Amino acid sequence: MPTKLLFRDDFYLSTCEANVTAVHDNGAIELDQTCFYATSGGQPGDNGFLEREDGSRINLDVTVTGADKSVILHMPFEGEPRPEIGEKLVCHVNWPRRYKLMRMHTACHLLSVVCPYPITGASVSEDDSRVDFDMSETIDKADITAKLMALVNENHPIYVQWITDEELAANPGIVKSKNVRPPTGMGRISLVCIGENASIDSQPCGGTHVSETQEVGAIHIGKIEKKGKENRRFRIRFVEAPAN
Ligand SMILES: [Zn+2]
């Protein structure tokens, strides 16, 4: 049974009720609906816990998509209790971690605005993200950091617009990733837009993002590595809050 993806319509949903629809031999739990984001598109899946009716917890290590992409698998740590089919649970996403991932993921989009080269790879994590660009130019990281922080401080709105496969096919230029094509065939694609009327950017992406650029907070380019003649790897990091 396909899992209803509540995080699709509300990136800020950190808890929801759900019913257990299947439990696999390896412990993977399927629910009728979920607010847990499953690993995809360079963004790691959520962890957190499932709260049972008696208040006890099933702690989750990670969330992934099943072989059939319409199903989400909630993976408990080894030794965690197994729920019954039909059991009612409350999902609790590890919100501090997810919110950092949303900020970092959004920062990757901003980087693709200030560094407009084809993207060959990206990986988001809580404290450090990397984006690989197909480029041979030498770029000053302080200059890129200043441009990123200008976009953050201008506090542009970020929103999702759904487009059809046909609309995407008619506008191939909106895809910045060189190797990865956005998933088509589901009839609709989520376009992540930054700025009023997408004035800053729009990009097909199924990840979770913050709703205003200011929420990204203070970030900087930690380093730019040369990975081959025509590949540059940028590392984005949060700036530590000054100790006081
Ligand atoms: Zn994204």
Characterization of this structure:
This protein has 3 helices and 15 strands. It has 244 residues and is α+β, with helices and mostly antiparallel strands. It has 2 domains: 90 residues, Beta Barrel (Elongation Factor Tu (Ef-tu), domain 3); 141 residues, Threonyl-trna Synthetase, Chain A, domain 2 (Threonyl-tRNA Synthetase, Chain A, domain 2, 2-Layer Sandwich), CATH 3.30.980. The protein starts with a strand and ends in a 6-residue tail after the last strand. The model has no long low-confidence stretch (mean pLDDT 92). Bound molecules: zinc ion. The site of zinc ion has 6 residues, from helix 1.
Low-pLDDT runs = none
Named at the architecture level, the CATH assignment of the largest domain is 2-Layer Sandwich
CATH topology category name of the largest domain:
Threonyl-tRNA Synthetase, Chain A, domain 2
Number of strands: 15
Secondary-structure element order, N to C: EEEEEEEEHEEHEHEEEE
Structural class, from helix and strand content? alpha+beta
Q: Enumerate how many helices there are, as a single number.
A: 3
* Structural domain count: 2
Distance between the termini: 52 Å
The coarse overall form would be: globular
The percent range for strand residues is: 25-35%
CATH level 1 class label of the largest domain: Alpha Beta
Helix content: 10-25%
Q: What hetero molecules are bound to the protein chains?
A: zinc ion
Order of adjacent strands in the largest pleated sheet: 3-2-8-5-6-7
What is the mean pLDDT? 92
Radius of gyration: 19 Å
Largest sheet: 6 strands, antiparallel
